[in-house]
């Protein structure tokens, strides 16, 4: 009965796989070191992320899995739901210990769980790409906050990097307390220890003077294209669940004209 702990990174999790095979000791549980509780009935093995070991595991997976399956495995890591580490470990172990391709073996719980988790993450990725709204600050930085159900920030950066290649922008995940900044040349990740009241929006004093006018124009446009006779609240909620309304200018209180 071994508890494996790691630093929370994907590289660290792959290192856990390597260590388990090297020790020939399968984990009873895998937990991130900052939340792990010492086991009373077994050994705790603290694994330090190792790029070479993680790369060897990943290269082994590349030989046996399609690009789509590898992506699903990474999406499961970003899924972050309880027990995701063990699902990934069981999936990887099944890959290495089965001669046939396991991608369609949905009788194996871990294969089905990986596919279902990846679908949820993929859906959240597309919703974030559609619903994120930027605010322009006084220093001409376009800033947006998100708090997605899953850790999709790494997945949406390519979309915004292409769409807003000529603008400086930053996206901050208030739930996970990290973000990404684009400086017209490259995208870098950042950690900000903001007070809770500043995580959700830009302070009014830091906003560009024209920002309220842009928001007002968007609300006027939405009011004009919205046809009351064709309102279908149930369909509207299916396409734009209420939890995403906080990102949308058209769902905010009307700006005084």
TrEMBL record:
Residue intervals of the DUF4130 domain: 84-250
Pfam families reported in the protein's UniProt record: DUF4130
Protein name, UniProt field: DNA metabolism protein
The species this protein was found in: Pontibacter diazotrophicus
Cited InterPro entries: DNA_repair_put, DUF4130
